[in-house]
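Standup notes, protein team

Yesterday: finished cleaning the Actinopolymorpha pittospori set.
Today: Iron complex transport system permease protein structure.
Blockers: none.

Input for Iron complex transport system permease protein:
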Amino acid sequence: MSALSIVLVLAIAVATAYGTVTIEVSTVARVIGHQIFGSVVTPDFTPIDEQIIWRLRLPEVLLAAVIGAGLSVVGATLQAVVRNPLADPYLLGVSSGAGFMAAMVITLGSATVAGLSASGAAFVGALLSTVLVLAIAAGPGGRFAPVRVVLAGVTLSFFFLGLTNYLIFHSSDPNAATAVLFWLLGSLTGASWPTLWLPAVVVALGTVYLQAQGRSLNAVVVGEETALSAGIDVRAFRLRMLVVTSLITGVMVAAAGGIAFVGLVVPHVVRLLVGPDHRRGLPVSALAGAIFVVLVDLMCRVAVSPNVLPLGIVTSLVGAPFFLWLLRRSRTGAMAG
């Protein structure tokens, strides 16, 4: 944990230093120190350096860390709740539903969704998607077959994606349509201190709450009978977990758009490293996810500088082959066993 925390701090420092304009890491440290501690730290930097670091890059990098942590924790929680290692906010249609509702606000105005903001509409969309997936996938006795959950999620994901594409095609405002399209690919461009606080608070509180449910998550993963014998009301517990993960997902989608594979790959890697115990796995997933997305954000800014790649493109290009490697590795291990 402490080692990952140090790596995260270093990753944030390096990601803040590099971009279209490269600034020394020591200058980054002085700017941040001066902003936090005032005159205690000598302002040995130019106003331009301060503008780039404090006003532009640091909020973006911190938002990347928040989004990475949130996606990883949500992915790990969903995989436990539905007892499916392929569960992920994007694969289950949660993010697509959130994206569709937020796209309605951007293209048609907040009046179309009862005056809700993009974040509020995204939460409603995430919750609606979750309810629909559970309703479709529920079998006899309210039990969830893992295959049905994935199939229901994929179906809803394509459905909401189709509706979102229609909004883009039908929009009379080309700027709004372009904004939705770029946002759906995942983008942190335009992040600022005011836009950082809501996702940061929601992810932090949500992570603390979900970690406190670690023992119950462990019991649910083993089986419903085990959870019931431990005194857990499985249906009520699932509902609470899904509401919390929907809230986190909705806020993250509203803040950064669609960023795939983080919630799928990172929890798998963490389980390989620290085991299946969610009491330890969730905080490690948060740190690992934060590091991963911060480094991906850095790659997006330097790969085609001065242009910026959408975050979701790089996470898909990196995450898909890595997940295939994980599948091959687990298959080889099973054959060897």
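Follow-up from PR in the comments: The mean pLDDT is 86.
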